[in-house]
Amino acid sequence: MNFDYIVMAGYFLLMVAISLAFKKMASSSSSDYFRGGGKMLWWMVGSTAFMTQFSAFTFTGAAGKAFSDGFAVLGIFFANAVGYLVAYLYFAKRFRQMRVDTPTEGIRARYDATNEQFFTWMIIPLSVVVAAVWLNGLGVFASAVFGSDISTTIWATGLVVLLISLLSGAWGVVASDFIQTLIIAMVSIACAIVALVKVGGPVELVSSFPNEFWIGPDMNYPLVIFCSFLFFVVKQFQSLNNMQDAYRFLSAKDSHNASKAALFAGLMMLFGCIIWFIPPWAAATLYPDAASEYSSLGAKARDAVYLVFAREAMPIGTIGLLMAGLFAATMSSMDSALNRNSGIFVRSFYANILRQGKASDKEQLRAGQVVCVINGLAVILMAQYFLYLKELSLFDLMMQVTTLLQGPILVPLCFGLIIKNTPKWAPWATVVFGALVSWSVLNVFTPLVVMGWFGVEEITPREHSELLTMITIAAHLVFTTGFFWATTLFYNPETDPNHQKTTQFFKDIEREVVAEQQHSEVDRAQCKKLGTLIMAMSSGLVLMTLIPNPLWGRLVFAGCALGVFLIGFALSRSGKAPAA
């Protein structure tokens, strides 16, 4: 009997149950569908903020990077924690205080309608590409696990994600993210504990790593690692704190819940990043030939190293949980993109341009569902296209997409909340200028050319990859951001038709959103529904103790079940109405 398939089936049933449980809460209005009506508690918002940064890339591309390069992979995840800390201190509550339903409505309030349309048609295609990278990573990993066709996996997973987003909108997306966060935590902690036991403890993990653990192989200039981390901090600061990705905090109940959500996501990222990579680090010692088992995947072969560890070191049934975690990571990233894109298209283009403000709220809700379907199919088709890029590893693909394509867009959307006096053409002109910067990095100021300025004539492939990302981030920080700041020299408030509206925008984002302190009916519904679903999930984990495993293997599942049940029980109790 293949217990992994049974575990996966149980996971998908749980996802369907989430969609049905929250369907009614998302159908009241378009605001409920696009951002939960701004009524979500901090732990729900924080979990979706965490999960959208997690993605399947962590279990595949990043795990492969950890397997071969050691500690250096943690740079980007530590940078995520720093980015969320900055959000907690400054950005998160101000995003909520924009008092909008979609990110592009915030862009219109900060700039004008022209920039709203420009960024609408920049954000939607790019988010489709990024979601397709995540979905492609899942297809690669699932094909290695089950020996299934990658295209079939991509279509099956993509359609399930589409169904969740379509039925329950933002409520289903965020609720599923919270439960998926529990799955990720449960799998990661269990695998990390077993990995440390099998490898002989933390000291042995570091000392027995095949390559230099702190630096990794093919690195003649260790300073590149340190500089790469610093630039990752800059990159993730912009990636997490910009008006495009403000949708994470638009759902929060108030300013206080938005800030707490950012802190929760940052702590999860900080404490989780080391736990996630203990298994691939241990696998480098325990199973040094793990990547060679999947040579058919080309440069992506090492991305399946987590599978090898789960299959060889963990009890029967863990692969099913691991795949559930991988599906969870992909689904959380993709369904958030679909829900956000639907809101952006309907509110910024369909309602304002096509319908000239005449679309009813009900019509906007239905239009959002149609757009959700179209976006979902586009992501699936794009993920299939990436299958032809076998010569490029998933880690490199993710880094190139996010730094070369997203970099120019994020500059005016991040620094626009700090640099105030900009002319109306500054945002779109900055993106165009940033595109030229990205082109220059790829074709003129390549890593080999830049290192030649310092007398270095040869670099390894790994150094080339690290330097490409670092040079791109540095170029956008210095030149693209510098261009945006320089536009303030051309600003004249007397000739700016949006001066009063922009001034009001900055007043609004400083004005706190305050909700009632008592638990409302919506608050209790969130707690009760999720608590019930989580306790149901714990009962499934209890059944996994019946799988024929050694005693220690059964205890692993029993411990996971107990931890999940306690969380579900606590939520369920907090969702009960107070006594009269």
Automatic annotation (TrEMBL):
Membrane topology summary: Multi-pass membrane protein
Alphabetized Pfam families for the sequence: SSF
Gene Ontology terms for molecular function: symporter activity
Keyword entries, A-Z: Cell membrane, Ion transport, Membrane, Sodium, Sodium transport, Symport, Transmembrane, Transmembrane helix, Transport
Gene3D superfamilies: Sodium/glucose cotransporter (1.20.1730.10)
BP-aspect Gene Ontology terms: sodium ion transport
Gene Ontology CC: one annotated term: plasma membrane
Subcellular location: Cell membrane
Reaction equations catalysed: L-proline(in) + Na(+)(in) = L-proline(out) + Na(+)(out)
Spans through the membrane: 6-22, 42-64, 70-91, 118-142, 154-174, 181-201, 221-240, 261-284, 304-330, 365-387, 399-419, 431-455, 467-491, 530-547, 553-571
Highest rank taxon of the organism: Bacteria
InterPro entries: Na/Glc_symporter_sf, Na/solute_symporter, Sodium:Solute_Symporter
Family, per entry: Belongs to the sodium:solute symporter (SSF) (TC 2.A.21) family.
PANTHER family linked: SODIUM/PROLINE SYMPORTER-RELATED, SODIUM_PROLINE SYMPORTER
Protein name: Transporter
Organism of derivation: Echinimonas agarilytica
